[in-house]
């Protein structure tokens, strides 16, 4: 990571984590520089699928997740539950269970685990009795992803990993260990780790945006 990128991420981390302070009062104005840093943070984010073995400290994870739960959510119901797995042994055990029922998963190039080889994964469940809960989970996830990137930590949203766990009889004991509350169901996972790649941005469809007069 070059020096300019380190400086940028350092500024972004300060802004993001300050914004996640529940005791912070909103300011009347936002400086142009601060706004630019946040915008650049969003635009520089990439889905990361190659990670270093470096462990993310629990203190760092707690700061990131604190930003996550301060995302907007319907009626402040906070209709999500989060489970964090950063144990290599547990990640390996879940992977082995899933692969037992679906061996083809392990045939992928460079395969180590079902979470794109990340050293940490955040599992997010939603309240199935609330029809807006999945939206809340998406907002939660975006805050987690941006807060992580502000600290130089890459991420990747994983719907397939959640589906594999849900559909795998051998993985059921691990799903049970997550102990989600009644009526809560695993929705998706977020892989987290220090990036070992710098992928280029993929094109986005500007034509999907239309203004109505």
From TrEMBL:
UniProt entry tagged with the keyword Flavoprotein: yes
Annotated signal peptide: none
Domain Nitroreductase: 43-194
Domain of life, per lineage: Bacteria
One Pfam family hit: LPAM_1
UniProt xrefs under InterPro entries: Membr_lipoprot_lipid_attach_CS, Nitroreductase, Nitroreductase-like
Entry keywords, A to Z: Flavoprotein, FMN, Oxidoreductase, Signal
Transmembrane region(s): none
Cofactor: FMN
GO molecular function: oxidoreductase activity
PANTHER family registered for this protein in UniProt: NAD(P)H NITROREDUCTASE YDGI-RELATED, NITROREDUCTASE
Family of the protein in this entry: Belongs to the nitroreductase family.
Name the UniProt record assigns to this protein: Type IV secretion system putative lipoprotein virB7
Organism (species): Segatella copri
């Amino acid at each position: 990571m070059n020096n300019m990128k380190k400086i940028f991420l350092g500024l972004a981390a300060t802004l993001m984590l300050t914004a996640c302070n529940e005791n912070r009062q909103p300011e009347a104005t936002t400086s142009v520089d601060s706004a630019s840093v946040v915008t650049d943070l969003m635009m520089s984010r990439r889905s990361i699928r190659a990670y270093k073995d470096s462990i993310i400290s629990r203190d760092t994870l707690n700061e990131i997740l604190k930003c996550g739960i301060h995302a907007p959510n319907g009626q402040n119901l906070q209709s999500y539950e989060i489970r964090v797995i950063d144990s290599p042994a547990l990640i390996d055990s879940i992977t082995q269970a899933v692969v037992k029922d679906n061996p083809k998963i392990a045939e992928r190039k460079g395969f180590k685990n079902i979470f794109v080889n990340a050293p940490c994964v955040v599992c997010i469940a939603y309240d199935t009795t609330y029809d807006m809960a999945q939206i809340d989970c998406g907002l939660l996830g975006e805050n987690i992803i941006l807060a992580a990137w502000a600290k130089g930590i890459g991420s990747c949203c994983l719907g397939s990993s959640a589906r594999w766990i849900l559909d795998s009889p051998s993985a059921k004991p691990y799903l049970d260990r997550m102990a989600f509350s009644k009526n809560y169901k695993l929705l998706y996972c977020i892989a987290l780790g220090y990036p070992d790649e710098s992928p280029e941005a993929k094109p986005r469809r500007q034509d999907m945006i239309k203004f109505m007069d």
